[in-house]
């Protein structure tokens, strides 16, 4: 999703139900209302 110094990063968030979702999968208003926690991970860590 983001490229910084040739390392790929992915942003995920935990919703109010405890499920982890990728940022960008839902509309902004839904994200703001349901996001409890953010996680920024190197792409290797999500495989």
UniProtKB/TrEMBL annotation:
GO cellular-component term (any): nucleus
Pfam families cross-referenced by the UniProt entry: AUX_IAA
Domain annotation PB1: ranges: 1-45
Keyword line: Auxin signaling pathway, Nucleus, Repressor, Transcription, Transcription regulation
Subcellular location: Nucleus
Family: Belongs to the Aux/IAA family.
Function according to Swiss-Prot or TrEMBL: Aux/IAA proteins are short-lived transcriptional factors that function as repressors of early auxin response genes at low auxin concentrations.
Descriptive protein name: Auxin-responsive protein
Organism: Zostera marina (Eelgrass)
């Amino acid at each position: 999703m983001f490229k910084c110094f040739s390392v790929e990063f992915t942003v995920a968030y935990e919703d109010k139900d405890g499920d982890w979702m990728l940022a960008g999968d839902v509309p902004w208003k839904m994200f703001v209302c349901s996001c409890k926690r953010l996680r920024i991970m190197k792409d290797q860590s999500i495989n």
